Amino acid sequence: MKMKKAATITIVALIYKQVNAFSTTATTATTRETNVNFSDWIADAPNEIIEWKKCQVEGTIPSYVKGTLIRNGGGIWSGEDESYSHIFDGLAKIHAYRINGQEVEHQARFLQGRWYNEYVKKNKQSLPAGIGTGPVLDANEIPKGGISHTAQVLYDTVVNFDNTPVNIWDFTPHRDTTKKRITAITDAPPRTLIDVNTMDTLSSSTMNSIAYGSKGYELLITAHPLYSQNENKDDTSVDSYNVAVELGLNGICVNLVKETSEGKRTVVTSIKSEDGTIPYTHSFGLSKNYAMIVLQPLRLNPAPDKQIEFGFLRSMDHVDHTRVILIELATGRVVLDESIDEKIYFYHMISQAEIMEDDDAVVSLRLCAYQSSDQLTGEHQFMRLEKCRKGRHMRNKLHRGGKFCDVICNVKNQSVKVEWNDEINQGFELPVTRYSRTFNGEVPPSNELNVLQAHPRYVYAFGAFALGSQDYDNWGLFKFDMMKNEIDSYYQQDSVYLSEPVFVADPNGKEEDDGVLLSQAYFGHEQETKLLILDATDMKVIAEVPTGNVAPLDFHGTWIPS
Ligand SMILES: [Fe+2]
User: Fold this and answer.
1) Range of the structural domain that residue 481 is part of
2) What is the pLDDT of residues 312-338, one digit of tens each?
3) pTM of the entire structure?
4) Which of 124, 192, 378, 445 is most deeply packed, by most CB within 10 A?
């Protein structure tokens, strides 16, 4: 009898357990929301960690990963009753990871420039107003009377603006950490000098030393300098190249600028704007012998009122051509300057290759590009916060991401060919390769005799709307195989939002993808930022470093080996 009762109880318990398990599963399947808390990732993050804080490491970091990763982005967009409306305008905040074997230390702190200190001086209630990517909404600190709103904003933009939230550049990659010149930079001349050991802000500047005598004012310079690819680890000074737009007595010029590790700046070539309009470019191409500047069909609208109302990107004028300029580095000679009907819009270059054909060079610049300007200048441009913070339905109006696009210049024929890659359908942004931002002359190997410099085989990038999802918030980190024109492998997890990966090469590796990727990721369910270390061969996570902190969406950064 007892046994029978026990059996009955057991059977009832089992049935209950089954039903319960089923209902739990069913509830989970129907109510568990995917891609949660994306909005945390684009919210203000005022918390700072201003001393190196030890973090627990889950997994094993390869022993060759020794150095400091510095990520740059915005940290605050809101004052008491006003807000910057574009993510690129946030007050610059860096997130640093110092890695030594299995020890990882972390800092998160605002850059202490003039722009940020203005905000602190006003009790963190009021944002400085300047011409930015988006307007400052409802700015209330503009003095009334005496000086017009426009004049005040222009004055602040020119005299006080030193906010540098876009990238980190090491002008001294050959020096040890005691003698480095590490800067935070943006799409304009201001720079912030950072102490790589302490992460303290050492100084900030609002403009560059004039590179072209006293003739001009440098208005724009890309946030993507590139190292000369003719240098090696033994060089005592490493040249960085960049492209700037200068206004001056010569009119409006696009300059290819070279800067040494000591800070000496020279203009390699100055190219006149053909019609007096002001072009905008966010990056350019550089290989061993040539620089390629692609001027997309966008021009800065010179009317300050319009820039203040819409921000500089949404107020752009559109022209009907793309101008492609190829410069021979050894002589500074412009060897090709062609305007083509095809419209190419882009933020980021990926790589540049050089091929010799009948003693003449064919140079190919690979971009992450768009056939329309929506992602840059449209109503639903990338991370316009006043839209994107309204929720998922608004973010789902964003562009699905860039495509691979090769711009190929043939010096002999003076021709420009544009090839869009339609085989890879996953949109992407913030592309990097093993060779991005390295200075040691390492270029992709090639078996073909006429190839002086090849495109890398593998490109790593984030993609929203990952894997065919209709949800913008579905993010993944992709490894593209450009030889097979396909996704080689990827990392994608529910509610994990990833930043631009940085490649750290395995010094004993033999293949291009032997190394790891470092990516700062926000975990929506845990509401915590973690550093992910992924095996670059198969995109599997080999270590995670939780920070106990929240870092907002960041843009670019660099790896400084120790
Ligand atoms: Fe960028």
Assistant:
1) 2-561
2) 888 899 999 999 999 999 999 999 999
3) 0.91
4) 192
